[in-house]
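Much of the work behind modern protein science is quiet bookkeeping, done one molecule at a time. The protein below has been through that process, and both of its lines are reproduced in full.
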Amino acid sequence: MSLLQASAILFDLLLIGVVVETIRRGLLNARYAVLWLGAALVLLVFSVFRPLLDWIALSLGVAYPPSLLFLIAFVFLLLIVLHYSLVISSHRDSIRQIGQAVARLERNLEQFEARLPAAESNPPSSSRRARTG
């Protein structure tokens, strides 16, 4: 085992440990951690089984196997960007709906407060209560 391979394995294990620890502390949501754990596991597999990377690169026609890792990393980052774009879009829609609901509640509160002084100065008569009650 070369120093580079041992370093890659150590880095991958450290990355997995950091992701698991951030999940445990509640800093990273488990659904977001799936992407990071998946990437770390793929890197770990390629670090441990280097011939697998060479075979996949040869099968795909990639002349220099380590450049396949850059392609995999690029695709991974594209997936993360797509995922976060979807999350941001969903949150934007939710924020708009919440803002509209708050505006309706504020309008209802203002209308209620406008009627309140009039209701306090003119209490309903007992005959009116009997009809409505």
In short: The helical segments are 3-24, 30-48, 50-60, 65-121, 126-132. Residues 20 and 26 are 10 Å apart (CA to CA). The chain has a mean pLDDT of 84.
